């Protein structure tokens, strides 16, 4: 079966079975094509609450599927269970629990894209796009930001009135981008804006023209008058940017900006998930789910 026929079949089956397909911005182009919703974690959470469907096929890494299951009573199915964010593997939950017990004066803040076990021991989680805004409003003066130390460093530079510590973990993809790559691109393409993710290193962000989350980058680019833009985040976002900005051209800042875990989900995986009951039905211990939901609910109070 070719891709066109498979896409037609997927559209037919999801209508018959009351299924919606949710895809992260970093997914393959063909997966984004058949998705009902494409976005970041916060946008997909909001879509899951609004969507009238029996089941959601979550195309992304496992923490996305877990997040959707945490906030939704719908069946959440993940086509490829092996797609796991490498950053989440760097965080030792037991060590973090020990820190929390020894330092009760610290508010534990995790990223919305963290695994469910981390959300469950966090006081609040934050989406990248609202991290600075929410942390500025927290009553606590002492913050332990867990998930991405580059993002934590960025937040600490923006929020001046708090003591912000970052746990040692980072996004493998964004952390690979180098200052020299930015310099080289500026020399090759003078006067072309360079837009990077806030999970990049500080020296990369300093040289860029703008830094933001995926949703912030998408919005920022829409308002640019420039007809050529260099993008410093995972390559999947280029599909979104090209769809929304047909008059602009985009180049990737670094060849390292490819998340192989986000790329594990194929059109065929989604099709077989719908026809052969492959994939993983997400199940979370109820005690863990409720604790994780509390950290998300605390986030929602600030949005």
Short description:
This protein is α/β, with parallel strands linked by helices and 303 residues long. It contains 16 helices and 13 strands.
Q: Could you explain the architecture of this structure?
A:
The protein is an alpha/beta fold and 303 residues long. It has 3 domains: 3-85 and 262-283, Rossmann fold; 87-172 and 288-300, Rossmann fold (3-Layer(aba) Sandwich); 177-252, NadA-like (Rossmann fold). Helices cover 46% and strands 17% of the residues. It contains 16 helices and 13 strands. The strands form 3 sheets. The protein has a 5-stranded mixed beta sheet. A 4-stranded parallel beta sheet has the order 6-5-7-8. The model has no long low-confidence stretch (mean pLDDT 96).
Number of helices: 16
CATH architecture of the largest domain: 3-Layer(aba) Sandwich
* Low-pLDDT segments, ≥5 res: none
Secondary structure class reads alpha/beta
CATH superfamily of the largest domain: NadA-like
Report, as a whole number of angstroms, the end-to-end distance: 45 Å
Average pLDDT, all residues:
96
In what range is the share of β-strand residues? Answer: 15-25%
Summed up, the domain count is: 3
Element-level helix/strand string? HEHEHEHEHHEHEHEHEHHEHEHEHEHEH
Specify the oligomeric state.
Answer: single chain
- Per CATH, the class of the largest domain reads Alpha Beta
Radius of gyration: 19 Å
Strand order of the largest sheet: 2-1-3-4-13
Number of strands: 13
Shape: globular
């Amino acid at each position: 079966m070719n891709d066109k026929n498979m896409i037609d079949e997927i559209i037919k089956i999801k209508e018959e079975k009351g299924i919606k397909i949710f895809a992260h911005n970093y997914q393959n182009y063909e997966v984004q094509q058949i998705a009902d919703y494409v976005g970041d974690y916060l946008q997909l959470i909001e879509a899951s609450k609004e969507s009238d469907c029996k089941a959601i096929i979550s195309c992304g890494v496992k923490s996305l599927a877990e997040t959707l299951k945490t906030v939704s009573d719908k069946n959440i199915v993940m086509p490829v269970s092996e797609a796991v964010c490498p950053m989440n593997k760097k965080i030792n939950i037991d060590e973090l629990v020990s820190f929390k017990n020894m330092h009760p004066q610290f508010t534990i803040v995790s990223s919305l894209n963290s695994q469910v076990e981390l959300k469950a021991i966090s006081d609040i989680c934050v989406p990248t796009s609202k991290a600075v805004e929410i942390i500025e409003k927290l009553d606590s003066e002492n913050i332990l930001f867990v998930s991405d130390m580059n993002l934590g460093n960025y937040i600490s530079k923006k929020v001046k009135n708090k003591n912000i510590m970052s746990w040692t973990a980072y996004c493998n993809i964004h952390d690979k981008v180098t200052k020299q790559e930015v310099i080289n691109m500026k020399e090759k393409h003078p006067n072309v804006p360079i837009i990077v993710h806030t999970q990049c290193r500080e020296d990369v962000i300093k040289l860029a023209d703008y830094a933001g989350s995926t949703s912030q980058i998408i919005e920022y680019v829409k308002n640019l008058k420039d007809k050529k833009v260099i993008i410093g985040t995972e390559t999947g976002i280029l599909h979104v940017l090209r769809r929304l900005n047909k008059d602009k051209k985009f180049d990737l800042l670094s060849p390292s900006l490819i998340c192989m875990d986000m790329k594990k989900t194929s059109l065929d995986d989604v099709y077989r998930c719908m026809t052969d009951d492959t994939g993983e039905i997400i199940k979370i211990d109820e005690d863990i789910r409720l604790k994780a939901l509390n950290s998300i609910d605390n986030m929602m109070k600030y949005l």
